[in-house]
From TrEMBL:
Keywords: Signal. This is Lipoprotein. It comes from the Bacteria. It comes from Natronosporangium hydrolyticum. The keyword Signal applies. Residues 1-20 form the signal peptide.
């Protein structure tokens, strides 16, 4: 393109002079404060996220991106950390006639580069066009993931992978990568996308919640590693037809964001709970365990997956303490359900088992197993009773 600058050496010298003239005292005592950002791997070796892209030698453009990011603040009004090494450019190149810069941004008050900031436009007219609070997988920075979404209008949806990733697939189709940036990928508003990143023999599975997830919320979650012949948890949720638009407004996803704040739902998995084959209810109940980004919190969502029709998901409940049973009440197309269950991972010893389950005559007992009780509810409160550890216990439940 005509605006690519061949005079890189002179431009670099100019930037070095600017940097030398702008140094100041760092209040954290971590060295000089340099307002201009650096390329990742420039100050400290970085084999995972080194700066890539076709424009990483354009010093004037680096200076412009740095100035734009220096003026940017998070949604909480926090600017970048004064230590320049904590905020850096991970990708800088040209896409379809526009410049794209991907910046790992560390806000003041934290040493984590937990924001992914996208700066796009033409040289001389660059601006922040997308910013997401990453805190993905189990961690709080770009170093804790191998994959970040690119969402700026006119450029995305795309994905930027770490230098360790050999290949990437989206819904089973391999995606072309150039300098770590994928080609444009079709991502719907309300449907999950399954992403599999390969690092050697390891397969890492991520899910994309769709373009309906508005900034600063992060649209990706981590599912788990994958064996060669395994069906991923994301694919199972896709097969269930989960609607992430409805979920993001007020249902399971919205309740997760509310429970986890300031963390975010970062890791989702999928567990079969029990099959139901009664006259009025035919289908399966699934458990969706969700971990927060800091791994300090865990929540459970229950999904009713009927033989015909879309699934229904309960609101989330925190799984604390981890060994206790949980009670869910939610509406389905067939009618309201109550589910008493032990989350997966709990050792259901004889002392913890549900035994001798009884329900009111107006309710219907659909399942009574040592780890789960399922009851179809009438339109008023009823009592579920059972024996646990030699004691008789009662739980009052009411249709929502």
């Amino acid at each position: 393109m005509s605006w690519l600058r061949p005079t890189v050496v002179c431009a670099v010298a100019t930037v070095l002079v600017l940097m030398a003239g702008c140094q100041g005292e760092n209040p954290d005592g971590g060295g000089d404060d340099v307002p201009l950002l650096n390329l990742r791997g420039e100050l400290n070796p970085d084999e995972q996220w080194p700066a890539r892209g076709s424009l990483t030698e354009d010093a004037e453009l680096i200076a412009e991106v740095s100035q734009v990011v220096d003026q940017w603040q998070t949604t909480d009004g926090v600017g970048r950390h004064t230590r320049s090494a904590l905020t850096s450019i991970a990708w800088l190149g040209e896409i379809d006639g526009q410049v794209l810069a991907v910046v790992a941004f560390a806000p003041e008050g934290t040493s984590n580069d937990r924001w992914i900031v996208e700066v796009t436009g033409q040289p001389g007219d660059m601006a922040v066009t997308e910013a997401r609070d990453i805190r993905t997988r189990i961690g709080n920075s770009i170093e804790d993931t191998e994959l970040v979404p690119i969402r700026s209008e006119g450029i995305g949806p795309r994905y930027l992978v770490s230098a360790r990733v050999d290949w990437l697939t989206a819904d089973g189709a391999e995606v072309q990568l150039v300098d770590g940036l994928s080609e444009e990928v079709e991502v719907g508003r309300c449907e999950l996308v399954e992403l599999v990143a390969a690092i050697g023999d390891e397969r890492l599975v991520y899910g994309d919640l769709g373009t309906n997830v508005e900034p600063p919320l992060y649209p990706l979650f981590y599912a788990r590693g994958l064996g060669p012949e395994e069906i991923t948890d994301v694919a199972r949720l896709q097969g269930a037809g989960v609607d992430t638009c409805a979920a993001a407004r007020s249902e399971w996803l919205g309740s997760l964001h509310e429970l986890f704040e300031p963390e975010i739902p970062a890791v989702l998995s999928w567990v079969e709970l029990i099959e139901i084959n009664s006259e009025d209810f035919r289908g399966s109940l699934e458990e969706i365990p969700v971990n927060g980004s800091g791994y300090d919190q865990r929540a459970i969502v229950i999904m009713w997956r009927p033989e015909a029709g879309p699934p229904v998901l309960s609101t989330a409940q925190l799984n604390e303490p981890r060994h206790r049973s949980l009670t869910f009440v939610f509406e389905t197309t067939e009618g309201p359900l109550a589910v008493l269950m032990y989350p997966s991972g709990v050792n259901v010893t004889p002392e913890r088992e549900f035994r001798d389950v009884e329900v009111s005559a107006e309710a219907a007992l659909l399942a009574a197993e040592p780890h789960v009780i399922v009851v179809a509810l009438p339109d008023h409160e009823v009592e579920i009773s059972y024996t646990r550890d030699g004691e008789r216990e009662q739980v009052g439940v009411e249709a929502p």
